[in-house]
Amino acid sequence: MKAISFKLPLIFILAILITGCRKNTAISYRQTILFQLDYVNYTPNYQHWGFFIDSEGNVLAYNNPEKWNFPDRELRISAGKVAENLAMCTHAGIKIPKEDLFKYSGHIKNIAATKVTAMKDAADDAGSTEYICYQLSENSEIYRGAIIRTEGNLTCENLNFFSKRVADWMKTISSRLPVK
Is 14 a domain residue? Predict the structure, then answer.
């Protein structure tokens, strides 16, 4: 009887450890992009710049690209159009350490499932900076974007606990970019 009463808690603890340690990032092994910071200002001196962070940790920058493929209103964009956009990018000379990439990409699933605050007017002629994370649907080859934060003329923020940390991390990366 004592042997059984000792083994049950041990089995229970092992079951919790095994299931609790499994990390579900919901990132497809075929997913190319994880994050994007995108700035657009339509004032007379049109500006469009930003960067992607790919699944290898490369920071791929763009500055006023021609024929850019923007996601639709629901932040969906095909893998083919993403590939076209990536062809217009250059490596920014920044590589995200694998630990950081794993840490921040681990928040994508929860950020994508969390609501975003309503848009608020904040400024005039400031343009708009969007911080976006992506998930790839392998069946449809469509990336689904989720707003982490929007700043500029209009502002909004994802209500997920980790969204502020992810946006601040992306802002730090943006500050390291060469000329914008």
Answer: no
**Rounded distance between C-alpha atoms, residue 52 and residue 59, angstroms:** 6
- pLDDT average, residue stretch 73-88: 97
For residue 101, being part of any structural domain is answered with: yes
* Total domain count, the chain: 1
Residue 171 covered by a domain: yes
Structure tokens at 178: 């060469």
11 in a structural domain: no
DSSP summary character for residue 158: B
Q: Please give the average per-residue pLDDT across 12-30, as a whole number.
A: 48
pTM for the full predicted model:
0.83
